[in-house]
Amino acid sequence: MPANGFTTCLWFDGQAEEAAHYYVSVFKNSSIGRIARYTEAGPGPAGSVVTVEFVANGQHFVAVNGGPQFKFNEAISFQILCEDQAEIDHYWSKLTEGGGEGGPCGWLKDRYGVSWQVVPGRLLDMMTDSDAEKAGRAAKAMLSMGKLDLPALEKAYAGE
C-alpha cells in the first residue's frame, strides 16, 4: 500500500476476496496484493479472509470482510472518466453484469452494491462551458439518459 495518499477501504459481508478479483478483472492496471486471513485466535473462522489488498485502475483498495452491519449506498461513488463510447459501453456492461443495475445519468450499482459513475471525460468540459446554452443542452440530454450516449451528448451540446 502507498506511503502517501489514500487507500479506499470497502466493507463486505464475506465477499471481500471475490469482489477484489472481480474489480481486478474489470480494470486495466490492476492486481491483487496481500491477503490477510484469520488465525486460530479469531474472531472469524481460522483461514477465512479478513482483508484483501488490491489495485484497480491504479487506485489502491482494501476489501474487508466486516460483516452485515454496513451496506454500500449512493452517498459514495467512483467516477470512471471514459475516452469514448466504447469505454462507456465496456465499463457499463462489466459493472452491471451478474446482478448490477443501471441508474440515471450514467450512474450504476455493481453486483456488490457499489455505486459508479461511468462518464465521458468530455462531458465535464461540456457541463462547465462558459456558454450557458451549450452547457444547459448537455445537462438536459444527460438527465434524460441512463447509460450515457456520448454522440447524443455531443449533438445536444452543439445544438443539433
Description:
The chain has 160 residues and is α/β, with parallel strands linked by helices. Helices cover 32% and strands 28% of the residues. The chain contains five helices and eight strands, in the order E-H-E-E-E-E-H-E-E-E-H-H-H. It has helices at 16-26, 85-96, 121-127, 132-143, 150-158, and strands at 8-12, 31-37, 49-56, 59-65, 77-82, 101-102, 107-109, 115-120. Helix 4 (132-143) packs antiparallel against helix 5 (150-158). The longest helix is centred in the middle third of the chain and has 12 residues, at 85-96.
Please summarize what this structure is.
Helices cover 32% and strands 28% of the residues. The protein contains five helices and eight strands; from the N terminus they run E-H-E-E-E-E-H-E-E-E-H-H-H.
Topology:
Elements: E1 8-12, H1 16-26, E2 31-37, E3 49-56, E4 59-65, E5 77-82, H2 85-96, E6 101-102, E7 107-109, E8 115-120, H3 121-127, H4 132-143, H5 150-158
Parallel strand pairs: 1-4, 5-8
Antiparallel strand pairs: 2-3, 3-4, 6-7, 7-8
Helix pairs in contact: 4-5
